[in-house]
Protein: Class I SAM-dependent methyltransferase
Amino acid sequence: MEKIQTTLLARQFIKKGVKEGGFVIDATIGRGFDTEYLCRLVGEKGKVIGFDIQEEAITSTRERLTNEKIQTPVELILDSHANMNTYVENESVDGIMFNFGYLPNGDHKVATQAESSIQAIENGLSLLKKGGVMSLCIYHGKDTGFEERDAILNYLKTISHKNYTVIVTELYNRPNHPPIFAGIVRDK
Structure:
């Protein structure tokens, strides 16, 4: 069995709700690993939109997709994930992936913030189709993220249980503040 990591949980969760030909969002593209995964998941007939506030992330992701010869239609947008609802219609998305924190091997002073992250989750919920899924990897260790972690976890408790199912999983016996996985399914 593969070692369980938060990113693995997120990918397995997304895979349950997203099929070939689907429409997905990578809300925080970072270095493009999840963007590439989503492209492979939806295939050439699907569509991926990715967001990041750093040009470095857009460039890095574009290079990754080119090097991997990805043929999926991809739109990379230099904008906050909090604004994704201005680019996408409500109830049109099969899956959304988030990684909260800072750009891997990037400037730790530039990181996601609680207010815009919660706005992004809220906007993302309205974009999901019935049966759509959202994964959240909440990185909060080292020098950043504790306030954002707490705010996101508190927000998740307020999401309507009549319309959504929210799952939160921790790697409980791992040291040094391991990331937290949360998964959301739109039931209605």
User: Anything to note?
Assistant: The chain is about 30% helix and 25% strand.
